[in-house]
Design brief:
Alpha-Beta Plaits, 6-stranded mixed sheet, globular, Rossmann fold, 293 residues, single chain, alpha/beta, 13 strands, 29% strand
Length: 293
């Protein structure tokens, strides 16, 4: 079975508030998708629908050609990993792992033990006695070891320190290489995580603003650094994401297809050419104004 995702005309309302507005999206299986958006953009609402936590107000979701809500063939194959409030969870770490193994058909107990060692989790410790970072490591362990055909990580790294997050990222990439499946990463740490994404989805005010292959997307922009008057003359008429200036030196970030001749012109002017980052594009697109630090 191929677990492709197809969303048509999807709307979700909370009372009179439209959290999601006429979403249309196709996610072929086997890729790592980055879902980014500002607070309140609707990311968690969309992911909770994919995980069958609720039903849409209008429109449809199909996973492997079937509606996932209350579908016993689909729901065990979608893992929604998010930061939970464990303050009332007195069960030990090993008990939560046993529950995951019971309900996830692709769960790999040996891999879970490998992750437990790498994250230095104490199997005998009650979950509510773990630090926030260790609780995050626990849910990430369950998500990776479950090897669900659709695995969703919604800000699952919260509480982890930088070295622990790096373990998570490397494990995710390596295990995805060995066991390809659909992974959706919802995050605010765009600059830190963008190298993980194969495709990028930007959600803004409940609507899909952009869905594109990561490499193609960032290749459409560039930064140009040099004497301010030369930079200003070169970028005139281009879509400018932002600029920074120090003395007579200026850096301008532009978005749009740049011809080979235009790039040669930048070199002739003595401008230093750099790459646009996904974070710079994201901030520009979702603020509707130039990004300046």
């Amino acid at each position: 079975m191929t677990f492709d995702i197809e969303i048509k005309n999807l709307t979700l309302k909370y009372g009179n508030f439209e959290a999601l507005k006429d979403i249309n999206l196709k996610l072929p299986s086997g890729k790592i998708y980055g879902l980014i958006g500002r607070n309140g953009a609707g990311k968690t609402s969309l992911l909770s629908l994919l995980a069958s936590f609720r039903e849409p107000t209008a429109g449809s979701i199909r996973i492997a050609g079937e509606a996932p809500f209350e579908n016993p063939e689909i729901m065990p194959n979608v893992a929604f990993i998010y930061n939970q409030d464990f303050k009332e969870e007195t069960e030990k770490v090993k008990s939560l792992l046993e529950v995951a193994e019971r309900y996830r058909p692709n769960y790999d107990a040996k891999y879970a033990q490998d992750l437990i060692r790498k994250f230095k989790l104490d199997l005998e410790k009650p979950v509510n006695k773990l630090s926030k970072g260790m609780q995050s490591a626990l849910v990430v362990t369950i998500g990776l070891a479950s090897r669900a055909p659709i695995t969703i990580f919604d800000e699952a790294y919260l509480g982890m320190d930088a070295p622990t997050r790096e373990i998570f990222y490397q494990e995710l990439l390596e295990d995805h290489r060995k066991h390809p499946r659909t992974i959706i990463l919802s995050t605010h740490l765009v600059a830190e995580m963008e190298y993980l994404f194969e495709e990028v989805i930007i959600l803004d005010q409940g609507r899909i603003l952009l869905k594109e292959d990561y490499e193609s997307l960032i290749s459409k922009g560039a930064s140009f650094i040099g004497a301010a008057e030369r930079v200003d003359a070169f970028v005139a008429g281009m879509k400018k994401l932002g600029e920074k200036r120090l003395g007579n030196t200026k850096a301008a970030i532009v978005f749009g297809e740049l011809s080979e001749e235009k790039m040669k012109e930048a070199s002739r002017l003595g401008l230093e050419i750099g790459n646009m980052t996904l974070q710079e594009l994201f901030i520009y697109l979702t603020k509707g104004e130039e990004y300046n630090e």
